[in-house]
Design brief:
The chain has about 120 residues and is an all-alpha fold. About 75% of the residues lie in helices and about 0% in strands.
């Protein structure tokens, strides 16, 4: 026994098909609109994210530069302290004479100078 299915083609069925096509087109339009909104939102979030990452990299570079400058400051401060201590020592006449004799090989009359490496006063 074979059953043949016949679709009715009356005005109600035609109206239902037309309504479904209309709803399908409306759904496609809504989905297309939501797709564009989603793309726009993604683009709006990409730019601040990029700027945030760039600012973070600059912050890291500045922190590294700050530590380097602090180290350089400490080194220069130590050198300044050494030089000021050396300048204070140079105010002493005996030290200046000893330093001039050792560094520049100055000597008194009939005095022989023998150089010893790394024995320069400082």
């Amino acid at each position: 026994m074979s059953k043949n299915i016949v679709q009715m083609n009356n005005s109600f069925i035609q109206n239902e098909h037309q309504r479904r096509r209309y709803l399908m087109k409306e759904r496609q339009k809504r989905n297309r609109f939501m797709g564009w909104v989603l793309i726009l939102m993604i683009l709006l979030f990409i730019l601040p994210t990029y700027n945030l990452a760039q600012s973070y990299n600059q912050l890291l570079q500045r922190r590294q530069q700050l530590t380097e400058l602090k180290e350089q400051y400490q080194t220069l401060s130590d050198e300044k302290d050494k030089e000021s201590a050396f300048a204070a020592k140079l105010k002493d006449e005996d030290y200046v004479a000893k330093y001039a004799r050792a560094k520049y090989y100055y000597s008194k009359k009939r005095e022989a100078i023998y150089t010893i490496p790394d024995l320069l006063p400082r």
